[in-house]
Design a protein that fits this description.
Largest sheet: 8 strands, mixed
Structural class: alpha/beta
CATH class of the largest domain: Alpha Beta
Order of helices and strands: EHEHEEHEHEEHEHHHHHH
Strand order of the largest sheet: 3-2-1-4-5-6-7-8
CATH topology of the largest domain: Rossmann fold
Distance between the termini: 33 Å
Mean pLDDT: 96
Number of domains: 2
Helix content: 40-55%
Shape: elongated
CATH architecture of the largest domain: 3-Layer(aba) Sandwich
Strand content: 5-15%
Number of helices: 11
Number of strands: 8
CATH superfamily of the largest domain: NAD(P)-binding Rossmann-like Domain
Length: 269
């Protein structure tokens, strides 16, 4: 399966690295990027074909759009028309699949994906939505590519991608903010800076790993470590009292609303 990337930035690099680890052949991957240094790096690092112009791309089974959303329409206007069998996989945040199809003169074999930054370490999760024009085989190809850097979930309606953006797309920043707060609290309680950082990082990392591997409901996992009358019960009660759930919901709603605004803005042309 031949894959072409338009854009060779960090997310494209993570995807290519993950794909090669999963058995994709470097000879089947091509990358178009305007930066000479970036092209040289990708060619040396992964052994993939690189080019400065999309006209050099061979016919591909999947064309991955990995450029900034603000320039996507301009980039698409300069692309040769994709072959009918080509699946267009967009990871450009905020740009709706229907707008991509419109900018590609009606090519509607489009899958829109919202990956997140943990994909950079092979631990991402991406939400995917496909236009009706994408066949089951094309959907499977897109899924296989995204699975090289983490997990995938499909949504039935494109509007749900905004919710995916609000939860998993923006979610790493919420977690980083929690790590910041936990580290600051550790220092406030008298721990050394390096100790505070290690405790905060590995507590969050370990709790997440435990939740994934155990598979139980988060509420049950919380109950298991919350002894009646103990320190954890007191701490959790303080979090509830200070509105942690309401704050998380407010963050998700705000991000969801902004995702909708960006979709309208980016697709208005």
């Amino acid at each position: 399966m031949k894959i072409g990337f338009i854009g060779g930035g960090n997310m494209a690099e993570a995807m290519i690295g993950g794909m090669l680890k999963q058995g994709f052949a470097a000879r089947d991957i091509s990358v178009v990027d305007p930066g000479a240094d970036r092209r040289t790096y990708l060619a040396r690092q992964f052994g993939v074909a690189v080019a400065a112009d999309a006209s050099a791309l061979p016919t591909v089974a999947v064309l991955v759009l990995a450029v900034k959303p603000q320039i996507l329409r301009e980039v698409l206007s300069s692309l040769p028309a994709p072959a009918p069998e080509t699946c267009v996989l967009s990871i450009a945040a905020g740009v709706r699949a229907g707008d991509i199809a419109r900018w590609l003169s009606g090519h509607d074999a489009v899958v829109r994906a919202m990956p997140n930054t943990p994909a950079l370490v092979g631990a991402g999760i991406a939400g995917l939505y496909a236009l009706p024009g994408a066949s089951a085989e094309q959907r499977a190809r897109a899924e296989r590519i995204l699975k090289a850097v983490g997990q995938v979930v499909w949504v039935a309606e494109e509007t749900q991608i905004d919710a995916v953006t609000a939860i998993s797309g923006s979610g790493p920043a919420y977690v980083f903010l929690f790590i910041e707060a936990l580290e600051a609290a550790a220092r406030e309680l008298g721990l050394a800076a390096d100790t505070a950082r290690a405790l905060a990082l590995h507590t969050v990392y370990g709790a997440g790993a435990l939740a994934v591997q155990d598979g139980s409901e988060p509420a049950l996992l919380r109950a298991r470590v919350t002894s009646k009358g103990g320190t954890t019960e007191r701490g959790v009660a303080a979090l509830e009292e200070h509105g942690v759930r309401a704050a998380v919901l407010a963050a998700a709603r705000a991000a969801d609303a902004r995702a909708k605004e960006l979709g309208d803005l980016l697709g208005s042309a």
